[in-house]
Amino acid sequence: MNKSIKQCIPLPYLFIAMTMAPIFFIAFLFPAKATSAPYTNIESFINTYLLGVVGFWSSNFPFSSTVITNYIGLLGPIFAVIFFLKVRKGMIIDADQYANMTISKYLFGLIVLSSFIYMIVSVSYFYPHDLAAHNLKWRMFGTHIFTYATFSSGVLFIIYFITLISYFSLLYIPRLLIKKNKQH
């Protein structure tokens, strides 16, 4: 009789809160538009040397939203790796849940995941989306600074989980499939 393993994926809540706090700090303390000297210099630096206007930004508060999207775009992948390492250290996974996984199911899941990652990367780094100019559903995130900061925190959180999902789909599950095929 197999004893079932209690799965555990511990989330580093303090780390998540500490990395999302600057988003709210920027949203509430930086001006909506860069009108004075220190802020215009920051805006010029971002547009010249960093990512510029990328990701989900808002024309209602172009300066603060550009700073936030650059924060997420530049530091998000670094934070995501740290998040993964913290989670991986205490993660317990029941390998038996993948017993029915076939190579065709795995490949289909890999295609879906790759499409999802492509969408997130293209939206975050290549194509700017003005939330204030979107339809009603998305406009609410570009109209109010609090909803924008909350939405941006969600984008950062999605980047965190992409690393975790990538680990499972690119390393963990293939390792199980190879082990399973060697046994047969």
Automatic annotation (TrEMBL):
The chain crosses the membrane at residues 12-30, 67-85, 106-127, 147-173. Keywords: Membrane, Transmembrane, Transmembrane helix. The keyword Transmembrane helix applies. The keyword Transmembrane helix applies. This is Colicin immunity protein. It comes from Pseudomonas libanensis. The lineage of its organism: Bacteria, Pseudomonadati, Pseudomonadota, Gammaproteobacteria, Pseudomonadales.
